[in-house]
Every structure is written in structure tokens, then in C-alpha cells.
Amino acid sequence: MTIKIENLTLSYGDSVAVRNLSLEIEQGEALVLLGQSGCGKTSTMRCIAGLETPDEGRISVDGEVLFDADRGVNRPSHKRNIGMVFQSYAIWPHMTVFENVAFPLRMKKLPKAEVARRVEEAITVVGLDGFAERGASMLSGGQMQRVALARSIVMEPSVMLLDEPLSNLDARLRHRLRTDLRELQHRLGLTAVYVTHDQEEALALADHIAMMQFGRIVQIGRPDEIYGRPLSASIADFLGVANIIPVRPLDARSVGFEGTDIGIQVEPYDDRAGELRACIRAEDILLGDDAPAESANTLEGEIVAREFLGATATFRVRIAPGVELDVFGTKQQANRTREGERVRVHLPVEAIQVLPTEAPELAEHVREGAA
Ligand SMILES: Nc1ncnc2c1ncn2[C@@H]1O[C@H](COP(=O)(O)OP(=O)(O)OP(=O)(O)O)[C@@H](O)[C@H]1O
């Protein structure tokens, strides 16, 4: 099922949660809405589900209009054939797994045999074979989450909405369930929209990621595109880029660190966008002997902090007053190096992105202070 959202706006009183948002999600695609707390992810989902009435816009699934502000169409939530799995999985503890999953079908008064067949299928799909008669209160968090999934799937929804479906689980389980979810979504050919604020989860689950800020989509693309080419420093920051340093343009292929006379070479950049930041991931910087000695982008600095992380280590290297770089290194480097030591660091040209602080369409909005 293809989901089409056009010019959606939702306000809660005076505060605008979703601003003129348009989005298309293809049949069988997993789209992840990613962004900071309060940017409007859940509100967008609630509009699709029919749990909120937007002020403006249109929502359709496979050409069928579910909501249209202009034409006064607003199909009630229970008639949208949309499955929902939310953070709090709302499993009834006094019922068995079977009864929990069967509940929505029984509400629809389907024949007993059909209920049994579909529930068994759904339980198998989520990997809970053998748990049908187990009381729901005797399940682990991950198993409960699976029951919630099964209860949605059993309705054979055309679209699944999953709002932070894994956030109540511990790291290991979250990791396993997200692989299962991805596999399940592909196998059933489900069109799915996820909400998360965990960038790693987004990268793992998505065919496409829509980055949201202040109720808008500021960038949309495949996970590798978003990860590799964020449009702004604030998106890069959200995606875990550790080094975001204010710079000023020097010429078409070089910038200077603000407050210093240090210049570095970079790939061509757009200098019309106002304040600029050089963004570089900690893992892309070469440290110590790995840094080529004679190179324009090799700088010298002092190690001001060192964090041993087991297999790897992070170093903070001060290259000028007020300019510090986080750099990943090996545990051997951590063993060899001490705070206060001077080291070389190399910033490969292709690993540096010079970006505006905010995405262009957002910059004005942020300046207006309308957030
Ligand atoms: N019921 C409500 N009444 C008033 N304001 C609301 C309501 N629900 C959300 N908001 C506001 O709308 C904005 C968007 O909220 P929303 O829950 O969509 O964000 P989110 O991106 O899902 O955040 P989180 O990651 O924290 O869940 C926020 O500023 C929030 O405070």
C-alpha cells in the first residue's frame, strides 16, 4: 500500500506540531521518522492512524482518501485498516498470549475457526510458537513486544505504524528484535512507518529515513545517504558526528577554524548558507603514526582526554585554544599514549563536510524563532 501525505499541518492549541508536511511511502517500504524529542514524529503517526484531526492536508492510502481537510473527509481510526504498535505495548496480563492476539478478531465477531487459524499464524510469524497458552504476565519484555506485534499483524493491516516499538527493551533484545522486525516486514510485504529517536535503530530498520526538525521533514533519503551526506550540521550532530567545528570560508577549497589561523583543505562547499561548520566523524580522523607527516590537513595537538572503551579508545585532541577534536583510536594507541602528549592528527579531505548550521529551508524558520 502506498501512503501519501500532502501538506499536513497539525496544531495543539497555539503550538504547531506538524508543519505543511508532505511525504510518500511506497508499497512494502519501511520509512523511519527520525528526529529529536518534540519534533513531531508521533504527531505525524497519530494523524496517519486517525488519532488526531489535522488542521490542513490530505492523507491517502493506495489512492483512497482517509483524511482531507478541504473536503471534510476524516475516516475514523478503526476503519483505516492500520496496525499500530506503540512503546507501551498494552498487553492484557490476565489473558493468555492466544487471547491477547485473538482479541481484535473476537471484537469483529469472526468465526471461531478463522480466529484460531489466524492467531496461530500470527503467533508463528513473530516467533512465539509454543507460547499460545502462556499467561501474558509470565512473559519477558521482548515476548510481550512480540505479542503486541502479533496482535497488530493478525488484523492483516495494509499499513503498520510502529512508534518506538523497541525502546522498552534492553540493548541485546532490541538488537535481535529489530533484525526480526525487518525480516518480518519484508516477508509480509508490509508498508511500515517507524518512529524512533535512536539513529542506529533508524539506520538498521529503514529503506528510507525522513529526518524531522520543528514539525518539518528536512531531509529524506536512504540510510547510507543520510548517514554519509547530512544536509546540515544539526542533522550531522543528531547522526552522531562528533566533531562539528565553526569555520570561515578561505577560498573555494579551504576553510579556517574560527578563532585561529589554522586552515584546512576541504571539498568544494556552498558558502552562501550563512554560518558554516566543518563536520567530521571521530572514526575518520587519523591519529599519531597513522597521520601522514607531510600533508596540508595534518595538524598537531595535545591529548587532553583519553577514554578506554575496550576494543577501541577515544581521544580528545586540542589543536588550538577552543578547537578540540574527538578521535577514535585503537586500544594499543590508548596503551601507548598519555594525557598531555603531543600527537599528529590528519583530517582526510574527503571525510570533511562543510555544512550550514541548519538545513536551508529551516534556517529562516529558526532565525524567526518560530520553533
Ligand atoms: N496532546 C498534546 N497537547 C499539546 N501539545 C502536544 C501534544 N502532543 C504533543 N504536543 C507537542 O507537539 C510537539 C510534537 O510532539 P510529538 O509527540 O509529535 O514529538 P515527537 O517527535 O514524537 O517526540 P518524542 O520523541 O519525545 O516522542 C511537541 O512540542 C509536543 O510538546
Description:
This protein is α+β, with helices and mostly antiparallel strands and 371 residues long. It has two domains: 3-228, 3-Layer(aba) Sandwich (Rossmann fold), CATH 3.40.50.300; 233-368, OB fold (Dihydrolipoamide Acetyltransferase, E2P) (Beta Barrel). It contains ten helices and 21 strands. It has helices at residues 41-49, 97-107, 112-125, 141-153, 171-188, 199-205, 223-228, 233-238, 331-336, 360-368, and strands at 3-12, 15-25, 30-34, 56-61, 64-68, 73-74, 82-86, 159-163, 191-196, 208-213, 216-221, 243-251, 254-257, 263-265, 276-280, 286-287, 298-308, 312-320, 323-330, 342-346, 353-356. A six-stranded mixed beta sheet has the order 7-8-9-3-10-11, with helices on both faces. It has a five-stranded antiparallel beta sheet with strand order 2-1-4-5-6, covered by helices on one side. Helix 2 (97-107) crosses helix 3 and helix 2 packs parallel to helix 4 (141-153). Adenosine-5'-triphosphate binds at residues 12, 15, 17, 35, 37-43, 197.
Largest sheet: 6 strands, mixed
Distance between the termini: 33 Å
Number of domains: 2
Overall pLDDT confidence: 90
Tertiary shape: globular
InterPro entries: AAA+_ATPase, ABC_SmlMolc_Importer, ABC_transporter-like_ATP-bd, ABC_transporter-like_CS, Mo/tungstate-bd_C_term_dom, P-loop_NTPase, Transp-assoc_OB_typ2
Keywords: ATP-binding, Nucleotide-binding, Transport
Domain ABC transporter: 3-239
Protein name: ABC transporter ATP-binding protein
